[in-house]
Amino acid sequence: MSDYAVLETGGKQYKVSAGALLDVELLKAEVGASVRLEQVLAVRAQDQFQVGRPLVKGAAVVAQVVKHLRGPKVINFKYKRRKGYHRKVGHRQELTRLKVTEISFNGAH
Predict the structure, then answer these.
(1) Are the C-beta atoms of residues 21 and 99 closer than 8 Å to each other?
(2) 7-13 long-range CB contacts below 8 Å, 24 or more apart?
(3) Tens of pLDDT along 4-56?
């Protein structure tokens, strides 16, 4: 099996491995910059598996910002029949696309 980590960012959890692309909620980082995500909940590296309580100490995921983008449009439509009430609201979430470069675990790469 390959090495992977379960991390939390933007209130969501992601299972990532080295070289993976993932879209997360907007991070304040420039395109091309390297970000270090330290909210690691579980990690599997070098035939070891560790689950944090709640976080794994010494574990981090290093990723590079590929680009900033907007997610798909989500329509919220509220309607009450026979009352003449309807509301239509659209929303597009601001996202950051990351490419995972490395998973470090207790100082090891």
Answers:
(1) yes
(2) 7/37, 7/39, 7/40, 7/41, 7/61, 8/39, 8/41, 9/37, 9/39, 13/41
(3) 999 999 999 999 999 999 999 999 999 999 999 999 999 998 788 999 999 99
Instruction: Report strand pairing: 21-25 vs 59-70.
Output: unpaired
Segments making up each domain of the chain, as ranges? 4-105
Q: What are phi and psi of 60, to 5 degrees?
A: -155, 155
8 A C-beta contact, residue 17 and residue 4 = yes
> What's this model's pTM, rounded to 2 decimal places?
0.84
